[in-house]
Structures are given as C-alpha cells and as structure tokens.
C-alpha cells in the first residue's frame, strides 16, 4: 500500500489528523464540522466491513421491498442507509438529512440537539453490483442549514452545489478509499483494515490533462440524441473533421467506481438523457451535485449537457438529471455537440 509520509517527521497522516489540520486554517471553527466528517468516516468503515463480507452473510439477495425510485432494493443498501442514519442522528451536529433510499427528508431527534449542518447521501451506489463483487460506493454532501431554527426543512436539503461545504465518496473496491473535499482540493485516504484507519494515500488529487477513458452505458445508444451519439464517435476518434486517438471504453455500472477511475486516470463518465429516460437516470441531490463539487476541485467539470451542475437549483429530493462529468475539455466538448445537434 502506498502511504504518504511527512518526510520531516516520517509520520503517517490519518484522516483525523488531516481534517484537524484543514480546520486549523479557520480560527473561528468550532470543531463541529470536523466531527461530522469523522462520523461519516466511521459510518464508512462500518459499511466497508459489511460490504467486504457480502458473500459470507445472508445479507445478499433482495430485501423484498421496492425503494422510492421504484427499483428493487438490496439488503446491503438498507444496511448502508441505516448505518449512515444511525451514525449521524444523535450527534447534535445535523439539522436534517436526506437519503436516496428514503422518500422524505430524515429528521434528527430533537432531544439530542439540532445542529447547523445538513447531510445528503446515496448510501450504496451501484448496488446492482453487490452480487457480482464489483466495486460500489457511498456518496455524500454537506451543507449549512438555511432555515433559522427548529428542525431542518426540505429547503435545507435542496441547495445548489455552489453552497456545499464538503462533499465526498467512499469506494469499496480492491481497497476501501474515502475521497473528500472541503473546497481546498481533493484528498484521498485508503483504509488500512488492520488498524482501522483511513490513511492519506492520494493528497491533492488533480485530474490529468490527458484522458484515457470514457464511461457510458453504450447498450442504450439507440435511445441517445444525435448530439450524444456524435460526441461518442468523437471520443472514439471517428469524427472525420477531428480525428483523434480513441479513448478506451470502461463502464462498470457503478458511478463511484467509474468516476474514481476517471478522476485518477483522466476521462469522462456520462449518463445522458435517453428517449426512454428523458430526465436521465442519476439523482441531482445525492449523486450529481456532490461529485460535481469534487470534480471541480480537481480541475474537472460536470454538466447536464448545457449547464454547470453546481449552478442548478434542485426542485425535488429525488430529481433526476443527465450527467456529463470528468475532464473539463471533454465535458465542454459534450456541451458543444449537444448544442450543435440537439438544438439546446
Ligand atoms: P443506484 O444508485 O440505484 O445504484 O443507480 C445509480 C447507478 C450508477 O452507479 C451507475 O453508473 C448507473 O446507475 C448504472 O445504470 P445502468 O445499469 O442503467 O447503466
Ligand atoms: Mg446511486
């Protein structure tokens, strides 16, 4: 495992230490926000522990109920959802939460105190991959509450990406990693399962300028617009006016895994609007906005094909949106094709 050491003192940097050091830059900080990030990291460790045992316990299989998106929900989704809620409900740090797996906002019990932050999350993204041992993830975003007092409200959860104070994801893959940003760059930590700590392994992640991959579900090409189809040909080097070296295709069916690969290696992930899904598939609040924040911090860009995702005001909790995310040049190119061929 590659662990970054502080050369002067030869120290290993844990996520706790990193969060505290980031907080020191704000003399007025009270520590509440740092503790909220620890709470999320702890929830991530618990989910990681269960996901890596998924083949061993009877947790596999369908839980037999349908989630609010109308999709079958797997047991591990429920476990991840409940873990995120339980680890964050009683801390007094949050005013309200919202989860991709819950129809309504999740209030925090008032007797434990109402805090000033808001947490939105997709507890287990890519869960169709659980049974086949492909990487899955958790995505989260943190806002300051907008409402002045009392329990947090729906409006607190429907904020624009520009208002995020932190966002991140956890990927449960060949190792577990937590990647987060508080608006001061993007930092990645690898979980050492032996000591149970996230250790800084990828400081200050920047997207490479040269891209290697494109990630899209090409099986749905027949449902794409002309612009999206032509953009894909361009990525494949088949545009006669602008022939280029083709990118390699990589698509796992796990947004977090595909996003993470492209963040480190350079590339673009897209889930466009389709004839059968004109709104796209991904959720603005839980998936598109937090990852848009991360990608921008790493020098990339996220768009719905026309607009910066971070400038879109969510209207409802489970709103879907087309998503193009990754290398700045590639996402801008997607916007150009869409504007030229789809008349948007
Ligand atoms: P989920 O949150 O229900 O897991 O859905 C989101 C997932 C993404 O991780 C992934 O990129 C996409 O849906 C895959 O969808 P499809 O199978 O249509 O390609
Ligand atoms: Mg998801």
The pLDDT mean sits at 91
Overall 3D geometry? Answer: globular
Order of helices and strands: EEHHEEHEEEEHEEEEEHEHEEHEEEH
Spatial extent as radius of gyration? 20 Å
Q: Numbering strands along the chain, what is their spatial order in the largest sheet?
A: 6-5-7-8-9-10-11-12
Number of discrete helical segments: 8
Helix content: 25-40%
Distance between termini? 47 Å
Profile the largest sheet: 8 strands, mixed
Give the names of the bound compounds.
Answer: 2,5-anhydro-1,6-di-O-phosphono-D-mannitol, magnesium ion
Briefly note the structural class of the backbone.
Answer: alpha+beta
**Low-confidence segments:** none
Number of distinct beta strands: 19
Strand content: 25-35%
Structure description:
This protein has about 350 residues and is an alpha+beta fold. Helices cover about 30% and strands about 25% of the residues. It has eight helices and 19 strands. The chain has helices at about 15-25, 30-50, 75-90, 155, 225-235, 255-265, 285-295, 330-340; strands spanning about 5, 10, 60-65, 70-75, 95-100, 105, 115-125, 135-145, 165-170, 175-180, 185-190, 195-200, 215, 250, 265-270, 280-285, 300-305, 320, 325. Strands 6-5-7-8-9-10-11-12 form an eight-stranded mixed beta sheet, sandwiched between helices. A five-stranded mixed beta sheet has the order 14-13-15-19-17, sandwiched between helices. Strands 1-2 form a two-stranded antiparallel sheet. A hairpin with a 4-residue loop joins strand 1 and strand 2. Helix 1 runs antiparallel to helix 2, helix 2 packs antiparallel against helix 3 (about 75-90) and helix 5 packs antiparallel against helix 8. It is globular. It starts with a strand and ends with a helix. 2,5-anhydro-1,6-di-O-phosphono-D-mannitol (AHM) binds near residues 71, 125, 126, 254 and 281. 2,5-anhydro-1,6-di-O-phosphono-D-mannitol binds near residues 125, 126 and 217.
